Structure formats: structure tokens, C-alpha cells
Structure prediction request, 745 residues.
Amino acid sequence: MSEKYADIIVDISHDKVDRPFRYKIPEALLGEISVGMRVYVPFGKGNKEITGYVVDLLDTTDYPPERLKEISRIDKKDTTLEGDLIQTAYWMKSHYGSTMITALKTVLPAKKKFKQLETKKVIRIFGRDEIESLIEECRKKHQTAKVRVLNALLDEEVLPYTLIREKLNVTTATLNSLVKQGVISIETENFYRNPVKKISEREAAKPLSDGQQHIIDDIIKDCCRGNTGTYLVHGITGSGKTEVYIGVIEKTINMGKQAIVLIPEIALTYQTLLRFYKRFGDRVSVMNSSLSMGEKYDQMERARNGELDVIIGPRSALFTPFPNLGIIIIDEEHENSYKSESMPKYHARETAIQIASIKGASVVLGSATPSMEAYYRARRGEYKLYTLKERLTGGQLPKVYTIDLREELKEGNRSIFSNKLKELIEMRLNSGEQTMLFINRRGYAGFISCRACGHVMKCPHCDVSLSEHRNGRLVCHYCGYEIIKPEKCPECGSKYLMGFRAGTEQIEEAVHKEFPSARTLRMDADSTKSKDSYEKILSDFADGRADILIGTQMIVKGHDFPNVTLVGILAADLSLNQNDYRAGERTFQLLTQAAGRAGRGTKAGEVVIQTYQPEHYSIVHAANQDYESFYAEESVYRELLQYPPAAHMLAVLVVSKKEEDGEYVVNSFAGLIKERVTGDDAPYIIGPAKACISKINDLYRHILYFKHTDYEKLVQIKDMLEIYSKEQNFRYQNIQYDFDPMNIY
Ligand code: ADP
Ligand code: ZN
Ligand code: ZN
Prediction:
């Protein structure tokens, strides 16, 4: 099947992609044209021939075909950097559901062209003798400004323009008159903004362990044979993954290729970057949200021009236009921030693999707690799996105590600290060692549990916890099931059936009450509004300016604190009871990473996990730092209920001004798919229901989920819904599609 029409953009820059022009594909070129290709087209009244890029192919057109012009010819078949980006956008559009324009805007760099920065220099043309006599001449004429410039130029042949204008206080007119006399010349030099401060310190490669060397050699051996692929490095924090990345990058650069390194924004600290700067010097740059638009644009230009070998950044750094990309590295690949929250809702892992296949590159994923997706693919042989088991700095794994909070309550302890945790904190305060207290902010969703027996109120149809609403009802946000909140625990009859709400501030207060002498620091979304404050809190703590650091998930990443010998996790199960199928996975990751913070130095560490559900597999396996056992149990659950990665899931979110309008749309969608998609193709439908957050800014949100083992079937459903909603006169603000969502709506 070959499409008959093509959308073409004649100026492929971020602010022009709104204007594609439709052309007919001539008979002779049918089947020859593909997305991303550069073609010649007649343009404007005079039909002048210009080049443009094919951004979309269509079977039909809503435009009268006889009024369409024809593509003249293909410019060249080999792809360009723009062509690669357009192909990537096209894949994102079809794979994640968005318009081509939105997808193009995601992959194209900064909004508009930025002028390059310039430096001007003043260069002496006259010889020293000539200058000296000129100085005499000017003195006599009382041209004091000229005298100042000429004096400065006696010793230096070249001086910065700004120095002369500002420090010597000389006007442009004076300088221009010297230019006219042929005494000096003024030259302008363009340069790119470079966010990396000059670092003279360089570091040579460490002697690698056998395990590290094996991974690097194996990956590079594949590359040399032209076998590109995806690799997963599973290794605890401190096991030397970063050294492996650096080793792979070094070899890639030696082959004349470039590397993209993705690191979650929050972990892009100076310490992390420094390791790359020290190894790759001027040939590495960084992208992050604190860069100006101009700086971002210039990094893209430097990459395009071959000035860079390595770019480090969050998700969006994937779209760096390297001429000969060899490798994409994704550190902490399990992080949620790798999934875009705006359309197209792409995942950096899958998109990286797609980009790598367009460019003939490989992908290396790394994590201490791989995502279920990545490990599942690795187990099925789609990715090659490597394991690094030892900490190279010699630190031992910490000793973990799991404390049952139900027992504490029975013994009459109502404080947020168990007796064990109190005792251990006290010991740290006496010995001058440090403690980290971790609270899980994600628990705020409002689940209800019994304080006496730990029973959690769940939806009987979905196996997710119910959320408490203000009207005293408990609601399932998957299917809409709701009940009135019971007075007593249905399991044990206790009246302590309630939500657990404690923020970092309450914990800090409680610490001060319990341990009046303790100096505390607090890190949460409020105390770290700016990036600087985040780094400042970490460095204050590293310098020993506090005994206890209290924080949310933010404290589980980042620096190594050798003096931290105790980590307390206050309510480990908070994240377990989100109404979300990823709750177990997220809890395991958080606990494992939090526990890994203790005992990073020479002193052994201890970890206290306080929980109402000590028997839950996420908690048991995290306490044992046992990823494989966790994976085994979690995958049974995913298989059983057909959640990703065992199957795929499509979330359709409908946002409307009037509640009944949104409800009507999701109901029609569900009805349409039930009627039209049958047999083996039929998806499993969940909902429709009100979204978890059912109203934002006065806009109502309704949700509908489809599950199917075949991703393509879900793409077809999305396509059907798109066409259907265009045909119908639905009243809605917008519809968002999210494949394999990270969060439940
Ligand atoms: P990860 O990325 O898995 O957390 P890193 O690569 O940061 O691990 O290594 C952890 C620590 O071990 C770092 O301080 C690093 O300098 C050190 N390290 C890594 N590889 C080696 C090695 N082969 N020999 C000695 N020290 C190493
Ligand atoms: Zn109970
Ligand atoms: Zn339900």
C-alpha cells in the first residue's frame, strides 16, 4: 500500500512546523517517498522549486485533490539530521498518539533561532614605534582618550573590546577614528554559549574490575560487528555502573561516534557531572532546565557541528542532533521522570531504542532496581542483561530491622518513632554520626487502613486501594465502585480505621520534641523550590551542619554521605496503598534506594523500616535487598491481572467543561469499542470512571482504560477513537492518550 499524499514543511524550524503544505505524490514516485525525506516542490504563485521535508503521508485528503500540486522529485535518499528527527517524531505520533505538529515540536530544538554570542577584539596594526610617536601627537592635541587606548596597546597587541570601552572609558567614536587612521582594527568572533565551566583537572581511567571490563568489551564487540542492541546493567548503587558508562563512551568516541547520556534531572548534580567533565573535557556538554533557551540552542548547534562527543541531560537530551550517534545511556532507567507528562506522552527508554535503530546506535540502561518493563524484556532476551554485585568502595550492605507498627500500638507507643528507631537515633546523636529520616510523600492520596490490624480497604473488582473522599465515601478510581466508609474495620472490628497523614514538617516537630538537642535539616518540595537550595541542603548535611536530615523521595538520591549510619523509613507502606498497579514496584524501589543510603562509608549502617504490613513482599524483599525475589512475585501479579509489562495498557483521559459531556464521551468510546472490536482483538476494558482527580481548574476529567497483550491493537483502538471523535460533535476540551501509563488517572 502506498500513500498518495504527503504533508511537507518547507522550513523545518520549531516555530514553522504549524504550517505543513499538502502535495500529491506523482505516479512515478508512489511507494518511493518516506517520512523524513527531503524533496523538491513547486512553491508559491510562481511555482518556484524549493526543498522541503516530508512530515506525514496520507491515503486520503480532505482537500480537493485536483487543487494539490505535485512533488517534483526526491532531493536525496540518504537521510539528514532533520530527516532523522522527523522520523522520530513520526514514530512518536503513531506510537503514543499525538498530532504530528506536537510531536515535531517535541523533537525540534528551542523555539527560535538565537543569535550567536560575539566577542569583539581590538587589534593593533601600527608597530610599537609608530604608536609611541602617535601618542606624542595626541598628547599635544589633548586627545586624552586616544592616549589611553594607545598606551594600553603598547604592551598588548590584542585587547578585548569591552575592556577598552568600559575600563578605559573610551567611546566608539574614538575607536572608529583610530580604525579610519589605520592604527587598529576591530574584529568580531562568534562563539557558542557553553554552560560547562572550564575544568582544568583531568582524570585518567580507573583500572576496571573484571566485571566492568567484561560488560564494556561485550557491548563494544557487538558495535564493531555492526550488531546494535539494548543492554541492561543491573547493579547496586556503588557497584561501578557509571565507570562502565564512561568506558563504553570512551570506546565509542574512539570509533568517531557520539554519546547521549540521560540522567534524571534531580540527579544532575555538579558531583555527577564533574566525573564526566574530568574525563571528556571540552567535548562534553550538559542540557538541563536551568539553561537559558539560547544556551540550549547552542548546545544543539555544537552537537550538529561536531564540536561535542557527549551530551548529558534529562529526557529531552535524546533529541540532540549528533551526526554519528553511537550510544545512548540511560542511568536510573526505572525513574518515573523518563516518561513525559505532556503530549506526546513518550517514554525515554522506548524512544531511545527507536532513535538508536534509526541511527544505528546501541542503548545501555542501568539501574540498581530495574523497572519491571526493562527486566521483563531482559529476561525474554530482548535486552542483554549484565549484573554487578559488589560495591567497589568496600562498604558493606546495611543491617535492616523491619518494625511492625501494629505491635508498637499494642504496646502503647503512639509516637511516629518505634522504640527501636528512637534507640538507634539516640546512639547516633551520642556518637556524632548522622541519620536520615525518610517519609513517603506519595502516600498522600488518602488511602484508608486499620491501625490495629493493617487491613487496607480495597476495591473488590480491581485489587487497588480505595480513596477516601470528603463526603465520607470510599471510591475506586479504576472502575468507579464506591461504598460508605465503614465505622469499624471489616477484618478485626477495631475503630481505628483511618488515613495516615504526616508530612515532613510534622516529623521535624516530632524530632525536636523527642530529641531536643538534635540539629535538623528538612528537604521536600517546599524547601527546595530552587535548584540551588537543593544542592545547599545536601552540602550542609555533607559538611555535618545537621545530625538528622528529614525528607521525601528527594533524599534517596544524590550524594554519598559517609557519616550517615542510620536510615529510618517512617511509614514504608504509604506508597504501597496508592490506587495504582505500580505501587508495589515503586515501594520496593524507594525502600531499596533509601536503605542503600546507610553505611556508604567505612562504618557499617543500620536501617529501620517501620510498617503496618511487614509481611508484604515489597517490604520483605526490600529489607533483604533482593531484587530477583521481588521481581518474581511482582511479575506473577502483573501476569495475573494483565498489567504492563505482561500486557499493555492505554489510558484515555477526556477533559470537559461540563461533567455530563465528558461522561457522555467516555461512555460512547467504551460502547464503540465493545461493538466494533471483537474476538481476539477485543481489549479488556476498565471503566469508564471519573478520574482520580476528577476536576482540575473547573475542568472535569473522565477516564477509560484498555488492556491488550498486543500493543498494536491498542494503537488501532486509539486511531479509531480519534477518527470517531472527529466525526461526532462531542463537546470536550481535550482528549489525552497515554500508553502504559506510569500513574493512574
Ligand atoms: P554506580 O554508578 O553503580 O553507583 P560508580 O561508578 O559511581 O557506581 O562507582 C562507585 C564508586 O566506586 C565510585 O566512587 C567510583 O569512583 C568507584 N569505582 C568504580 N569503579 C571502580 C574500580 N574499578 N576500582 C576502584 N573504584 C571504582
Ligand atoms: Zn482491623
Ligand atoms: Zn474498582
Remarks:
- The first strand starts at residue 5 and ends at 9.
- The longest helix spans residues 659-676.
- The chain has a mean pLDDT of 86.
